Amino acid sequence: MVIKRKEFLQIGSLATASLMMPKFLKAFEKPMMVPPGNKVVVVIQFSGGNDGLNTVIPVRNDIYYRERPKLGIVKDKSLLLTDEVGLNPALEAFKGLYDDGSLAIMNSVGYPNPDRSHFRSMDIWHSASESNEYVNTGWLGRYLDAQCKGCDKPTQAMELDDVLSLALKGEENKGLAFKDPKKLYNTSNGHFIKDVNADHKPGEETIDYLYKTMSATLSSADYIYQQSKVHPTSQTYPNTGMGKDLKTIASLIMSDINTKVYYVSLGSFDTHVNQDNQQKRLFTELNDAVKAFTSDLKSNGRFNDVLMMTFSEFGRRVTQNASNGTDHGTANNMFFISGGLKEKGVLNAMPDLTDLNDGDLKHKVDFKNVYATVLNKWLAADDKMILGNKFSYLNFI
Amino acid sequence: MSVSNRTKNQHLLWRSAFGPMAENVASLDTMSPKILWPLLVKTSAKPVVKIEVTKNPADEYMMGVTDPKEIQKKLQDPALRKKLREQSRDDLKMMNIRWLEMMVNSEAQLREKMSLFWHGHFACRSQNSFFAQELLQIIRTNALGNFGDMLKAVSKSPAMLAFLNNQQNKKSHPNENFAREVMELFTMSRGNYTENDVKEAARAFTGWGFNAKGEFMFRKNQHDTGSKTFLGKTGNFDGDDILNMLLEDKQTANYISKKIYRYFVNEDVDEKNQQWLSSRFYINNYDISKLLEDIYSSDWFYEEKNIGNKIKSPVELLAGIRRLLPMQMENDQSQLLFQRGLGQVLFYPPNVAGWPGGKSWIDSSSLMLRLRIPQILTANEVMDIMPKADDDVMMGQMMEAAAKKLRDTVKGGTASIEWIAVNKIFEKTSREKLLENIADTVLQTKSQVSNAVLDKYINTASRENYIKSTVVNLMATPEYQLC
Questions:
Q1: Is there a contact between B385 and A163 if contact means CB atoms under 8 Å apart?
Q2: pLDDT at residue B404, rounded to an integer
Q3: What is the per-residue pLDDT across A239-251, written as a single tens digit (0 to 9) for each?
Q4: Helix/strand/coil (H, E, C) string of chain B?
Q5: Subunit contact B478:A210, Cβ cutoff 8 A
Q6: Which residues of B touch A191 (CB under 8 A)?
Q7: Predicted TM-score (pTM) of this structure
Q8: For an engineered disulfide with B174, which of B202, B281, B310, B379 has Cβ 3.0 to 4.6 Å away?
Q9: Interchain contact, A217 vs B479, CB within 8 Å
Q10: Is the pLDDT reported for residue A25 higher than 60?
């Protein structure tokens, strides 16, 4: 492995610093480690179709309470943001972020002719396609294709998972999926594989593509593992899946790795039955992990450079079903969290429950406008080329 | 460089079937592909044995009720629906395992391989395992028959009618989903018809649906009997007319033969050969067997540029390993876990366009898992990956718990391999020729792993160990991902 001079100095200085330097001096070292202005996106996917109406609650809407006699969350129990908007009680950290101006909520995000099948709707969100077209690449994968001509490592976009999502698959470049840096390092460190890799001589296109992928994985595994150790966070994270994932992401954000996009999923939000418990359990896991993560970013001076965004493949129907759950719906809300938001709070009107489409919310914002905004304004990428169309930008960043 | 008989035969076996089988490998040096191909045709000629894992719920739970309307009522019962949903999930797993087993062991290799292709072409997800089972039967029965017959049978199957919403396609509210996909994905492909053709075809398909027993129904009073203009012709068309007109259009023969060429011959299409296939396919009235005959008895199919350059799909990879290394699967779950980890689960295509194939199979994590599979299988390594949730399957079950359960069952062994059969392949091979011979059997690529690297990792304690370690190591290379 080639260690960059800067990394070498960091590792070297840390080793001696911890022995010799007085504590007050070490404190100065931290913010120096990361170049400011390196913008990062963390996408959090709510798999299964999160119920948006019980996430951001229209607490003054009679129709909401009429259609959800058992499931409706009463005003007093919700975490009130405004007179008419409350948050799910499990999202206490999100309320805190709202209060200090680092949370934005976009209501009624969706797409025309919505599909109510999980896999198809997720496909549409991942590929950023229209609901009647089939695209085999994802929006972040195409971002890699656009940004990453000649990149030697697929570390620009990484997913904390054993399997890579369509969202991160491009035509030529694909993101890297791993559950934790140590495990990735161990599985890519077999001597046989390394020898085979070193021995390969370029020849035909397809086999070279496989070798290129393998070679990139092997070097990335080393790189990620080393980077993840450069800045062991002192923040305590909850011992949950989301807690571990965000801790890994934080440790990489504090390093000088070149990653621009992190991707992580939580689920299942497919709450057909006894919704309250399941949503509460997942939101608690999310809330506690996000709380630790944002506080970690803040104390390390990175909060302004990191944008977290949440989405789900669809929302759920307005009317509850007979099993104290909700069935598949359409438009939904998204959260944006960052110290660098330009617009904060509730960005647009709450869903209009008097104007439904066959019992489902109508979308007011196309999710592709959100993607275009993030690609252009946060990642400084060519959104039109990546999305295949020009979508107007929103103003939250 | 001339291509050896062995490589040509293995090429034929990898493309038209699921790779060479241990017991037949030794004979591949002497036989000509001109002898092997008719054998493949012959062994697939017998009537299809149905993969039957489930009965029609409309028979099984109705206690003598036969009227479809009454059955429909009974099927609305929430308790029964929940039961059927759970049963379907298990049935689909069972069907997956059974079909994969056939891909490995059935002598009707050509049929099962073509069925896998059509399974991806007529891609369909059905929550109803009985419907999925019937659709698979349509595909396996027609896989080597007539494309038009298969198109019509698939179009009238409850699985596809439900999946593409033709059940909701009524005169008063046309639903264009089926009409659009039948043109875009099943026959002509984009750019060969107009939006208006889609609208008019949708009107022609109004009234096509199925009853509670899963039988095709033409619901007359929901059918739009008005005049339609489709592909430049005007008439009072119904669904059958539309399908016939699609088959009459040469673009359908062109699109299907091109897809077949890309799948079975080379992603890089040779225009001349493909155009020839297309015209033959059309003249032969969409006879699939004749199309395959045209491909596999041609000389160009065996040209070097067409060999060893196709990325095996996950199912092809798994079946291929199992054919060369006969094994007792000690745990069915691991078969499913591999499919999920590698991105191809039978009966769960990503969308109606099927698995995109080619390079899309390969990313960092899927490639690393592919390279580990031989080791996991042969050394009983623990399978420590957790594939993504599929909410359409899980219906909101707690995923971590379900996956953990799955992982626990996969721990403690996945397969026991009959190495005796593998050793037998090479019993007449001299010690000096052994490495070369094994490599020629396992790999189809021009790119080879060097002997110097292999020598470092081969276990030379005995001839058995030598063979075993060489095979396993060769299967754990990028080269083995190609055929």
A1: yes
A2: 57
A3: 999 999 999 999 9
A4: CCCCHHHHHHHHHHHHCCCCCHHHHHHHHCCCHHHHHHHHHHHCCCCCCCCCCCCCHHHHCCCCCCCHHHHHHHHCCHHHHHHHHHHHHHHHHHHHHHHHHHHHHCCCHHHHHHHHHHHHHCCCCCCCHHHHHHHHHHHHHHCCCEHHHHHHHHHCCHHHHHHCCHHHCCCCCCCCHHHHHHHHHHHCCCCCCCHHHHHHHHHHHCCEEECCCCCEEECHHHCCCCCEEECCEEECCCHHHHHHHHHHCHHHHHHHHHHHHHHHCCCCCCHHHHHHHHHHHHHCCCEHHHHHHHHHCCCHHHCHHHCCCCECCHHHHHHHHHHHCCEEECCHHHHHHHHHHHCCCCCCCCCCCCCCCHHHHCCHHHHHHHHHHHHHHHCCCCCCCCCCCCHHHHCCCCHHHHHHHHHHHHCCCCEEECHHHHHHHCCCCCHHHHHHHHHHHHCCCCCCCCHHHHHHHCCCCCHHHHHHHHHHHHHCCHHHHEC
A5: yes
A6: 457
A7: 0.88
A8: B202
A9: no
A10: no
